[in-house]
Specification:
This protein has 144 residues and is an alpha/beta fold. 56% of the residues lie in helices and 15% in strands.
Length: 144
Amino acid sequence: MLDRFISYIHQNNLFTKKDKLLVATSGGVDSVVLCHLCKNAGFDFAIAHCNFQLRGDASERDEKFVQNFANQLQVAFYSVRFDTKQYAQENKLSTQVAARDLRYEWFEKIRSENGFDFILTAHHADDNIETVLMNFFGVQELMD
């Protein structure tokens, strides 16, 4: 898997070992695997985690897990907590769209303030299907 990861990056000229990467990490399998691949490939990266405070104790456990994970990998860790429901209400957005807006705005802020060259996110097929459906139907309430 590591060889395929490195080969794909090189073949598509995505980034190099000279680049500084910010990896968005939820604590889910896909983002944890991406971090392991980056570490094992020798890339310079840090981890960014958003706590949307939507799942009570589970959100807190995810944040702590990702912080411990970053410590284990010996990489910088950035985290933020959002009042996602309030932001969604104030901006008349679904919770899902609000969370997406908040996280990408924050990732860009961290990137620009800390000299990261790229933001990496891990997605699986279901994530792509969700995005396509949301865009196709133009529905912001799809995930609420």
